[in-house]
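Sample intake sheet
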Amino acid sequence: ARTRPAAAHFHRLRRRGSLPPLPGVPFLIGTLGAVIRLRSRPRSNHENFDIGLAGPLAGFVVAILILFYAFLSLPPQDYVFQFHPEYEQYGADYAEHVYEREYVRAITGTDQPVVTGVKLGSNLVFLFFETFVADPDRVPNENEIMHYPVLVACYIALFVTCLNLLPIGQLDGGHVIYGLFGFKKHRVIATVFFVALIFYAGLGLPYIRLDFNEYIFGLPGLVITIPVYLYFLYLCMKGLRMPMRDTVMYALLMFAAHFLLTNFFPEINGYQGWLLFAFILGRMVGVQHPPSEIEEPLDSQRIVLGWLTLLIFILCFSPVPFTVNVVE
């Protein structure tokens, strides 16, 4: 079959508007993308592929241009003193003092754990700009990044791009993987990635540790949390659309892996925030990509753009995208 240029597909797939699917984190990152309504259903893998790579490519280019400006125009280090004048007494070495337990105790007057801020994770894009573009003396401390709104906005843009490019279901990354590898290989890649995401996310989960001594409704915490977590894993695994017996088996195997590794190797930790996204994928988005009515080989231009899009996913990915800094 003859292939059509990407522009022809976009001309046919006119959009009627968009609605935000999730409210995001209040006062922090707004909505997480949008649900797009198409006037006509994409019929070929080319159309799905073009839809999948257009948004991430455009967003990534814009974010990179803004990051060049942001890192080349970073304010001097004493910029932070506008927000924390108490740091000024320590000068350029404030970071060696103000995040220590003794300092936080003296400021707050309490021995209880204190949340001192939110830290952004690291990805290869930010690592490149911090190493090769920015003045090393002006790179912000990770605990004070929230005072640099342009950097925060770009990081969130890259984070949302990364989420959309996960090679699962009908996310943008799923469309790209489907176009590059076809229906059968997409099924394998999406399943492996989805299971690996849940496996990594649940490592070190505190609520399934044997030393969990809290009581819930008068019962030991493990009596409540273990069944709840098992049911949570079962709901996630239903996204694989397997028979119930296999779904239960996969959920039990995943729980056993998390339970054993968490208790015998407590130093190994994942990022539990990914569990929420895995649940959303499994219950709302789905792990598999529906087959297209028309299957056509991609032309060389699309193949190059597809691999470039997968590279963008790697550059934007952060294993631990957000961390709440707690001084105990």
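Comment: The first strand starts at residue 15 and ends at 19. The longest helix spans residues 172-202.
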